[in-house]
Amino acid sequence: MAADVRLLGTAFDPGAELADFTARHAAAGGVVSFLGQVRAGGGVEALELRHYEPLTLPGMAALAEDAQRRWVLEGLLIIHRSGEMLPGEPIVLVAAAARHRRDAFAAAEFAMDHLKSESWFWKREKVAGAWSWIEPRSVDFDDVRRWRE
Amino acid sequence: MARLVFLGRLEDVAGGVERVVAGGALADVLAALEPDLAAALGADRIRLAVNGVLVADRASVVLGDGDELAFLPPVSGG
């Protein structure tokens, strides 16, 4: 089963994507999904994600393959935005379909932890009209490290 | 000529997302840049990729005609 991995430069509809994914994997007993969106508040007017074409999508595909090796999945969906987004807009959608729910929960969390800390994205936010780059958070490294233990 | 690509906050230090430079060994390429930019690019936590392949050993990098060298600061995605 090939994973569905996409890097998008424009807005997407997570509800429609999830409905389509679920319909494609009718044999799965459970689907676990995670949606990340631009947090409203804190004076943030916009968020921008930059990627590096030769590395970012190939890295996401390798991550999906890794998840599929670790757990028994019927399907895996990873959609990640690049470009400028407004508060409330979806950034990332991960969904894992499996015969048994534990595999689906674990694979979705594994994919998110690695997307946050190891995928080739750089983030900046606009506050009061001025852009500033966001430094990595140590908690994201802690989250990904536990998969190696 | 070779191309340098600056990701994340390195873009602000460089004043643009990319720059065309004369090829050669990495140390010589960096030495020809502004000192503050060269220092930012030379930091340990900056990863390098030549033509889309991550570099394990900086000292081995020699840029030829048409090569693309990307400077990758720690990621902050998702």
Describe the structure.
The complex is a heterodimer of chains A (149) and B (78). Chain A has a four-stranded mixed β-sheet with strand order 1-4-6-2, with helices on both faces. Chain A has a single domain, classed as Molybdopterin biosynthesis MoaE subunit (Aldehyde Oxidoreductase, domain 3). Chain A is 37% helix and 34% strand. Chain A is globular. The model of chain A has no long low-confidence stretch (mean pLDDT 94). With 149 residues, chain A is of the alpha+beta class. Chain B has 78 residues and is an alpha+beta fold. Chain B has one domain (2-72): Roll (Ubiquitin-like (UB roll)), CATH 3.10.20.30. Helices cover 23% and strands 31% of the residues of chain B. Chain B has helices spanning 10-14, 26-31, 35-41, and strands at 2-6, 18-21, 24-25, 47-50, 53-54, 62-63, 68-72. A five-stranded mixed β-sheet of chain B has the order 2-1-7-4-5. At the A-B interface, α3 and β7 of A face β7 of B.
Can you tag this structure with a few keywords?
heterodimer; A: 149 residues; alpha+beta; four-stranded antiparallel beta sheet; 37% helix; globular; B: 78 residues; Ubiquitin-like (UB roll); five-stranded mixed beta sheet; 3 helices; 7 strands
The CATH homologous superfamily of chain A is termed Molybdopterin biosynthesis MoaE subunit
Query: Averaging pLDDT over every residue of chain A, what do you get?
Result: 94
Low-confidence stretches of chain B: none
Quickly give the structural class of chain A.
Answer: alpha+beta
Give the number of DSSP strands of chain A.
8
Shape of chain A: globular
How many structural domains of chain B?
Answer: 1
Based on CA atoms alone, the radius of gyration of chain A comes out at 16 Å
Number of domains of chain A: 1
Give the distance, in angstroms, between the N- and C-terminal Cα atoms of chain B. Answer: 35 Å
